[in-house]
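SAMPLE LOG
Freezer: B-3
Tube label: C17
Construct: single chain, 217 aa
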Amino acid sequence: MILVMTIVPHSFGEMITSAAIEKGASGGTILTGRGTAANSFIQMLGLGDSSKDITYSIVEEKILKDVKQNIIKTCENKKAHFGVMFCIKMETLIKSGNPGEELKQKDGDNKMENLYQIINVIVNKGYADDAMAAARKAGAGGGTIIQAHGTAKEGDAKFFGTEIVPEKDYLMILIPSEKKNQILDAIKNLECLKKAGSGIIFCNEAQDFTLLGKQSE
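STRUCTURE (predicted):
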C-alpha cells in the first residue's frame, strides 16, 4: 500500500481526493495548514504564505499509476506550481474493524525513486516559524505548518521525552535528500529546542515527487 499525499491551496483538497476516489482509492483525509515559503526557486515545496489543504489517500499498488495520473490531469489547468504530490511507502497497515488483518510491505516491493525527504518538527505553539526560518537559512525553500494539540495537561505525560502540552505546531518541510543533514543541524540547535521536552524532529522518505498545475512551456 502507498500513501499518496498532496499539498494544494485551501478548498481544493476535496477536488484531489475525489480524483483519487474516481480511480479506485477508498477515500481520503484532508488537513488544513499554512504555507511558509520564501520567494525562491524551491518555494514550490512550501507553496507560499497562505492556507493549504494537505490530503492523504491510501491506494493499492495496482491503481497507483491511475490515481496519480488522474490527480495530475485534474490540476493541469491550474496555475503553475499549484501544488505538489508525493508518495510514502507504508510498511504496515491495520484496518479498523479488522484487528486480525495486518498488511505488511514485502522487502523489494514498490521501488520508487527517492530524491526527497520530509522533515517533521513538532514544537510548542509559536515556535514553528523559528524552526522554518532556521531551515530556510540552511537551504530549505518552505514548509507547511499544521496547528495541533496534545492530549494531556502540561507535565502529565511525555511522548518520546516531550511534554504533551495543549497547543502544538506541526511543521512539515519537503526537501531534496542531499540537504537533510544541514537542515536538521540548523533546526536542532535552535534555542527553543534546547530545553528537554520542548520538541521532537523525525524524518521520512518522500518518493515519486510531482509538481501539480500547468507545466512550464
